[in-house]
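User: If only I could read backbone structure tokens as easily as an amino acid sequence. Those tokens are not coordinates but codes from a learned vocabulary of shapes. Could you go through the record with me and say what the backbone is doing? Here is the record:
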Amino acid sequence: MDQRFVGIGELTEVPCVAVVVDVMRAFTVAAWAFARGAERIVLASSEEEALALKESRPGWLALKDGPPAAGFDAVNSPGLIKSAELSGRTVVQKTTAGTVGALAVADAPLVLCASFVVAGATARLLRAEGLGPVTFVVTGEDGRADEDRACAEYIARRIDEDDAEAAPYVRRARVSRAAADLTDGVRLGYRGVHPDDVELCLEVDRFSFAMVARREESLMVLRPTGEHAGW
């Protein structure tokens, strides 16, 4: 299967298949939100849009990067979201990189959002459908984030080799700048980070579902899907 790896700013055309990777932390948080019962995640283009969507739809929740803020119900931290009760809820998510990357490829026929926690399921879906070529969108640091690139390369490897060893890729993510920044944030007592965030982001195949984003009316909506589920 043909594959390429690009940053958000390098997208010059609509890809056939896009895998948008944000390890630390958007699409680890999204996976945990689904594990905690969320029905769907709406990807917002701005914090203002996220709050407007929440205010116009009773029962919806809003989630953002950074520290807690008025109007938002949660922050972009797997360590904090993993204990939330989200059964049947719609979560509106706005982050610095992950949601931006997904919205940038919204017109692609197939958009998957991924991180290490759903790597295997993502690779299996791509292999089962036999679609290509695949464009991996490395969202962090203008396409240079090593944790996202490592995860993208790992998923790509697993498309052809399901038992590919994860350890070399996880090691790269563990020593990435994003991991160091999260560790520093915990040490300095920043709000919006949790001591378990890095380790939760490095769990491989924690969940058995992939995450597919597609337009539903005017919104870009992310939903979990099993290996044999339709999308």
Summary: The beta strands are 3-7, 17-21, 40-43, 61-64, 74-75, 90-94, 110-114, 134-138, 210-216, 219-225. The longest strand covers residues 210-216.
